[in-house]
UniProtKB/TrEMBL annotation:
Pfam families: GGDEF, PAS_4, SBP_bac_3
Highest taxon above the source species: Bacteria
Keyword Ribosomal protein: no
Protein known as: Transporter substrate-binding domain-containing protein
Ranges annotated as spanning the membrane: 242-262
Record-linked SUPFAM superfamilies: Nucleotide cyclase, Periplasmic binding protein-like II, PYP-like sensor domain (PAS domain)
Domain PAS positions: 279-332
Keyword annotations from UniProtKB, A to Z: Membrane, Transmembrane, Transmembrane helix
Amino acid sequence: MASAQAQPNKTLRVGVYHSPPKLFFNEQHQMDGIFADLLNEVARQENWVLVPIPCELGTCIEGLKTGHVDIVPGLSAADVNMRRFSAHTLPALEDWVQIYARPGSTYKSILDLDQKRIATYLDSGLEKSLPAQLRFYGLHAELMPQDNAPAARLAVTENHADVAAVNSITGLQETAFHNLLPTAIVFDPVAQYFVAKQNQQADTLEIINSYLEAWQNAPEGESFYSEVIGKWNRVAPPKSLAVFWGSIALLGAFLGLSVYFITRLRNKVTEQNRQLLASEKRLSIILDTVDAHIFIKDHELRYIYANRKMCEFFGENTDSIQGKTDFDLAMPARTALDIQQTDLKVLELGERIAGEEQLYDRRHQTEATFFAVRMLLTAEEINEDKDGVCGIATDITEYKATREANHRLAFYDTLTKLPNRSSLLKRLAHTLEDIKRKPSCAAVLFIDLDNFKHINDA
């Protein structure tokens, strides 16, 4: 199924972190695991050259941002903010959190985790998702982070923890023959992808997506995808035959449970996605029809959202403006600096700041005046690591021009542009008020100009 548009001998630098059986380096120091098998097959058919780069998960993600790594396999929304990276559309793998316990334990629901010791492991995404689940149900538990999944399993085996929270794919290999059994407690389904830097490797991700779609839709006996998943679901038999057959039965039950939960989770995710897309579409229509500039920036003051009105003002679109700062937009550097200082004040003080701003309107080749309101948004509200800034700016250029025109009509002669009688009376009233507050002298000078009509006519 080689793509006709694939570039021959493309070189891809692949960030490889230790997360078996998803991705790791084997004893021969070669990239191995589910994602490695999938990517190696695509590379073989597309004549790509893969350069594995060993790194911790966080370092791999940072490598994407800096450009030292082209692609990182097996990432989900729990690992990175997908809006700031690029990924293919079809998930390469679906995973969820499974709670494992010692035989004889009676854990039937997540409520049974109250006041328990839960072993987790680093770089699993559980350090964020598990506390959120516990808070949602009002539960209190002691989290015991370990270096990796085997260490989390060992903590339960040696009675240092009551249960272990393990990603289902990792748990299948790590716990099947170590006297731990999967409980009925599962949560936090996640879809995992091959991920690249934002707006990079679009052709690579499209090709990977086409292979995944073909493999996942192929008949069971002809699917390379099923072959890879089956390969990594196999566990070497133990020495004891009784334990072996018991493990086989456990594995069969686990796989059956996996199919059930995958189907259930997919249906639930599909319905939630449908409702979310409908809600987002309604909100997008509302925001794009509002006669105001609406935007959201992250803690680095980079745009993560701007409505259509604002994009049109700067000659951008909703995709191109993302990741840019005000210095990247069509405005003077001095203006961008002033806006940045105001945004920083919002982030530092957490206060709502409102006031007028001057921006150059490139479409009408003139200065425009805006009344802008800026406020703080929490990290949770914008799905970021740190707080951000939300702003609404309304163009008041015409309003100010109308107000100034009305003022001129009221207090100045339309022909001579000189102050009229209303202006004189207003200034006299101000002078009298000043004299009342602070006793002083004032005088009115009256000059009678003969033949003033000649001046008007001139």
